[in-house]
Amino acid sequence: MNETFNPITWLTRSRWCLFGAVFLVASLWVPTVAWSMGEYSRMIIPQIRYKGGNYKPRPHAIESLLGQTAKRTSVEVKREARDMDLSDPDLFLYPFIYLAGDSAFPPFPDADLKILRNYLNYGGLLLIDDNSAKANSEFDDSVRKLVGNLFPNIPMQRISKEHSLFRSFYLIHQIGGRANIKPYLDGITIKGRTVLIYSSNDLGGAWSRSKLGHWNYDILAGGRFQRKMAVRLGINIVMYALTLDYKKDMVHLPIILERLRRSNLR
């Protein structure tokens, strides 16, 4: 498969006209949005910092995923760790955020839940990654309580294998990570858009490499093929965050960022 991704080929002429209009208005009226457009050309994935538990058990996971994204696609990235509290106003400048852990954590404050709910409702995507590599882990229990508080009327459900997430760049037929706890992803979908993805399989452990290029953690089951699938799945999630559902009437990143900015001003 050709591993060069060019967003231009995914858009019709009319959609690029819309892109240009949004960019022009944002550049003239809203300096913060103009800055975030620049961030898009060098993608960053903030990792959410929270109190209690262990919020960063795989410290090189996101940098490694960004490195693989740059290597396999034409998306420009900035390979740096960016830890962020939910209360940080810059949260709304990023279309994709990552929350990980390997132990129990206390419930999020109501103020943080409101911010995260607004972020997701207005176009953001959250990936939650259980790094414990254990079934029915303490982290899993905390995550399910978090999601229940976040969306009390929307149950987390298994993401269908027909979801565009599994074909946004690679065709994905196998779900796994450093471990193979569940052969599927869970998620929250609102009005046809998946806003939250939850992996029980320690994706970060499969992605993580040292600065010398060595894998930091052994795969617990499935070997090299499972790691390859985990890396591909990570890239697919990045692409889904940037383009949403490319099989449907696509909303492109500048519009997502503008929507997030407006939500943050409310």
Topology:
Elements: H1 13-29, H2 31-41, E1 47-48, H3 61-72, E2 83-84, E3 96-101, H4 110-121, E4 125-130, H5 138-150, E5 157-158, E6 186-190, E7 193-199, H6 203-207, H7 223-243, H8 253-265
Sheet with the most strands?
5 strands, mixed
SSE topology string: HHEHEEHEHEEEHHH
Mean pLDDT: 83
Strand order of the largest sheet: 3-4-7-6-5
Which geometry do the CA atoms define?
globular
* Rg, alpha carbons: 18 Å
- The helix count comes to 8
CATH superfamily: Domain of unknown function DUF4159
CATH topology: Rossmann fold
**What proportion strand?**
5-15%
> Uncertain regions: pLDDT < 50 for 5+ in a row?
1-40, 246-252
What is the terminal separation in angstroms?
A: 44 Å
Total strand segments: 7
For the record, the CATH class is: Alpha Beta
Secondary structure class reads alpha/beta
Number of domains: 1
Second CATH tier, the architecture: 3-Layer(aba) Sandwich
- State the helicity in percent bands: 25-40%
